[in-house]
Write a structure and sequence with these properties.
Number of domains: 1
Largest sheet: 5 strands, parallel
CATH topology: Rossmann fold
CATH architecture: 3-Layer(aba) Sandwich
Mean pLDDT: 90
Radius of gyration: 13 Å
Number of helices: 5
């Protein structure tokens, strides 16, 4: 079963995503809340995919974590998640290797379908 790292600072959203994805059964879910825990999880688990929140309350933000993640776990396929549409951030994320960009709010069905298409089926 492929591993999926969720990097999200909002505990209710992180917990809901973790529970939903565990029940869906497509991934072994790992969570992190900030740069330090995200990079440690990437290094330890080398997940197939990562859902990475762009806007985190403390520096660095998701884009900086993505840049560091490319060095720690270069094969991890990253989908960025954000509450705002910022074309510069989208271009930067794609330049740093993100494979997709999801804007909140999103449905769980959409998220599951995206994860299957962009991560699980690519393994």
């Amino acid at each position: 079963m492929p591993k999926l790292l969720i990097v999200e600072d909002e505990e209710p959203l992180r917990d809901m995503l973790e529970e939903f994805l565990k029940q869906a059964g497509d991934f072994k879910v790992i969570t992190a809340t900030d740069r330090k825990s995200a990079l440690a999880a990437l290094e330890e688990h080398q997940p197939a995919g990562m859902l990475l929140d762009v806007m985190l309350p403390t520096k660095p933000d998701g884009l900086e974590i993505l840049a560091a993640a490319r060095r720690v776990s270069p094969h991890t396929r990253t989908i960025m998640v954000t509450g705002t549409v910022d074309l510069d951030a989208i271009q930067c994320a794609k330049a740093l290797g993100a494979i997709d960009y999801i804007t909140k709010p999103f449905t769980l069905d959409y998220l599951e379908r995206t994860l299957r298409e962009k991560i699980a089926e690519c393994l």
